[in-house]
Write a structure and sequence with these properties.
Rossmann fold; Spo0b-associated Gtp-binding Protein, Chain: A; GMP Synthetase, Chain A, domain 3; elongated; alpha/beta; 3 domains
């Protein structure tokens, strides 16, 4: 089984806030001590942290649920509950985090040590010391803790490489990577020897260095799922320069120029923006007898079919086996990298707007619908959060919640919809009768 995993779907749940406490000061020489219940502690966040030691998302293969601790409950003597520690989840460099429900990108984690809060913990509920007023100096009201954020995430790893090696299977990409870096990719005389991306660092004779990724071989129809399909095409997206490796010996009976067109078509079909990346054509296997003549024909076809307004890609004849032409190729690649800026992976429409963790003033406070049993159903983020944070074990808290509903206009809205005295009203699984 391959130990490389570059996609994963997980669920994260931040910690709930601790419940506030109802307590009263009762000391021998302190008459009318008043309320003394403290607030609950804040729930823990779920935080992603980039770890440069990780190379895959394999850690998420079997562990798909991440839940932070809840805050402690408030205590007597006005003491606050302890806030929970954040849950730290380590991810590899190059991890894109996407909300599975909306499809929007939350963050792109590329720097070692970079942190991002993917789920925010709930605030602690207030204790009864917070509700004391001159009219009600000894309230028996406290709040439950705010629920922590819960969401499903899609993780996608796109390895960090400056240069990507693309081409048909068995054109010599893995061999090339093995001779220009210290990487040890699997090499074999059959198709799809490489089934996972391999990464290596190149240092040129002039002292320049860059990262190169050998990507599993593409074939015609890959963008529609043929062969390894688009499984690893995502890793090309971070590269700034593409080395297009072609078997110029035509050892498998294919035409080198047709190979060149077919691979570019697959790149374009997967993501049109990949064609913005400058390409260097690597004419490999030049130690073979037919290669020189095939290269001459290849250049003629390339010039004949190229748009006169476009710049022709550079062509470097090499032999990975004899190491012919490698230093020239690497120097040219380093030079092209120096003048090629990084490409924007995502546009604004794909990114989730900065989240606001509170009540959205523009959003409707509640919605009313009708259930199959003719009960009125109240829903809405603001209303449901107020409901969750209400301590229904305390009569004063229940009355406060009823006043909040009235203040939000729920009573008037139900009357306008035709609700009558005694009708059943439901919030989640909680039911009560409407009193007109």
């Amino acid at each position: 089984m391959s130990m490389f995993l570059d996609t994963a779907k997980i669920k994260v749940k931040a910690g709930n806030g601790g419940d506030g406490m109802v307590a009263f000061r009762r000391e021998k020489y302190v008459p009318n001590g008043g309320p003394w219940g403290g607030d609950g502690g804040r729930g823990g966040n779920v935080v992603f942290v980039v770890d440069e030691g990780l190379r895959t998302l394999m850690d998420f293969r079997y562990n798909r649920h991440f839940k932070a601790q809840s805050g402690e409950k408030g205590m007597t003597k006005g003491m606050h509950g302890r806030g929970a520690e954040d849950l730290i989840v380590h991810v590899p460099q190059g991890t894109t985090v996407r909300d599975a429900e909306t499809g929007k990108i939350l963050t792109d984690l590329i720097e070692n040590g970079q942190k991002f809060v993917v789920a925010h913990g709930g605030r602690g509920g207030r204790g009864n010391i917070r509700f004391a007023t001159p009219k009600n100096p000894a309230p028996e009201i406290s709040e439950n803790g705010e629920p922590g954020q819960e969401r499903e995430l899609q993780l996608e790893l796109k390895i960090l490489a400056d240069v990507g090696l693309v081409g048909f299977p068995s054109v010599g990409k893995s061999t090339l990577l093995s001779v220009i870096t210290s990487a040890k990719p699997k090499i074999g005389a059959y198709h799809f020897t490489t089934i996972v991306p391999n990464l290596g660092m190149v240092r040129t004779q002039s002292g320049e260095s860059f990262a190169v990724a050998d990507l599993p071989g593409l074939i015609e129809g890959a963008s529609q799922g043929v062969g390894l399909g688009t499984q690893f095409l995502r890793h090309i997206e971070r590269t700034r320069v593409i080395l297009h490796v072609i078997d110029m010996s035509a050892s498998e009976g294919r035409d080198p120029y047709e190979d060149y067109l077919a691979i570019n078509k697959e790149l374009e079909s997967y993501n049109l923006r990949l064609m913005e990346r400058p390409q260097i054509i690597v004419a490999n296997k030049m130690d073979m007898p037919e290669s020189a003549e095939n290269l001459k024909v290849f250049k003629e076809k390339l010039v004949a079919n190229y748009d006169e307004f476009d710049e022709l890609p550079q062509i470097f004849p090499i032999s990975s086996l004899t190491k012919q032409g490698l230093s020239t190729l690497l120097d040219a690649t380093a030079e092209l990298l120096d003048k090629t800026p990084e490409f924007l992976l995502y546009d604004e429409s794909e990114m989730e707007e900065e989240a606001y963790y509170g009540f959205d003033e523009d959003a409707p406070a509640f919605e009313i619908s009708r259930d199959d049993d003719a009960a009125w159903v109240l829903s809405g983020d603001k209303l449901e959060k107020l409901f969750t944070m209400t301590n229904f074990d305390r009569e004063e808290a229940v009355m406060k919640f009823a006043r909040q509903l009235r203040g939000m206009g729920v009573d008037e809205a139900l009357r306008a919809r035709g609700a009558k005295d005694g009708d059943l009203v439901r919030i989640g699984k909680f039911e009560f009768e409407f009193v007109d």
